[in-house]
Amino acid sequence: MPGITREEVAHLGKLARLELSADELDHFAGQLDDIIGAVARVSEVAGEDVPPTSHPLPLTNVMRPDDVQPSLTPEQALSGAPAQEQQRFKVPQILGED
């Protein structure tokens, strides 16, 4: 398989809106070629009887069911707030934005 060319790296850089120097083009071409070679080696190892997976171990959902539970009313939640506005906590402005 031919290696990744500088022109291909330059095209990828243009698509990603990156300005790459000549040294970076050579450097990244070698790195991308190594990455593609590693992926090709992994593809060779997987047999037809091995299903594609995203994780080596099966994953299960460990979250609890989303059951509706009684909760505080806005008035109860805001009862201890030092400042409130339109049923929300009012905090000091920190970013200087409106």
- Mean pLDDT score: 87
CA(first)-CA(last) distance: 57 Å
Number of H/I helices: 3
Biggest β-sheet description: 2 strands, antiparallel
Strands in their spatial order, largest beta sheet? 1-2
Helix content: 25-40%
Low-confidence stretches: none
Radius of gyration over alpha carbons? 27 Å
Number of strands: 2
Structural class: mainly alpha
Proportion of beta-strand residues: under 5%
* Global morphology: flat
> How do the SSEs run, as a string of H and E?
HHHEE
Give a written overview of the molecule.
- With 98 residues, the chain is mostly helical.
- The protein has a two-stranded antiparallel ribbon.
- Strand 1 and strand 2 form a beta hairpin.
- Helix 1 packs across helix 2.
- The longest helix has 24 residues.
- The radius of gyration is 27 Å and the shape is flat.
